[in-house]
Amino acid sequence: MVTGFVDEFDDADVSSFFTAERPEDWTITEAEGSMKIEVNKTNEEKRFSAILWEPISESDSFLVDMREFPYISVRVKADKDFNLQLGPRNFDVQRRNENAIPDVGETNVTGNNEWQTVYYDFTEKFAETETEPNGINRVFFNFDPGFTMTGTVWLDNFKIGDKAERPGDVVYDVLVSGGTGG
Predict the structure, then answer these.
(1) Above 80 in pLDDT, residue 170?
(2) For 26-73, how does the pLDDT look when each residue is reduced to its tens digit (9 = 90+)?
(3) Residue 89: CB partners within 8 Å, gap ≥ 6?
(4) How close are the terminal C-alpha atoms of the chain, in Å?
(5) Whole-angstrom Cα distance, residue 142 to residue 85?
């Protein structure tokens, strides 16, 4: 188990840790030191399609312990306004209930092609849902959940746990305390 994770997307190869829940909705590449995501969620019946950070299978030992540092930060830019929904999932809880997550962080991203740093604090959300913050094996990203969307989104400096940038480390464009924000 580790206490943090960082992907700065600066090697030009798409990390195998990032997968599309529905590949027909997303094209993922790495360019210019960031992850470029071409979004094409046009199926009215499948509007909750997500991108998953999922570095392990059940037999692997790579899990993130977020007990002391229940934070996620990411830089994001887009060519259109959208709602970014993000949430970690716990390995043990997931085996009992696939949808058990400590709620989600949610924020509006301005589509001006300018970088914004977003910070999520899941401290209260882990407690409210009785989800253990140890053993995180997946983080999902959903863009405009519940709606169709086409556009381009860029992610950079994705950080979890003790690696996440927190207030005091940098100036944040958006601070989110678990639930909605923006």
Answers:
(1) no
(2) 898 888 889 999 999 988 877 777 888 887 554 455 688 888 888 999
(3) 100, 101, 136, 137, 138, 139, 140
(4) 32
(5) 5
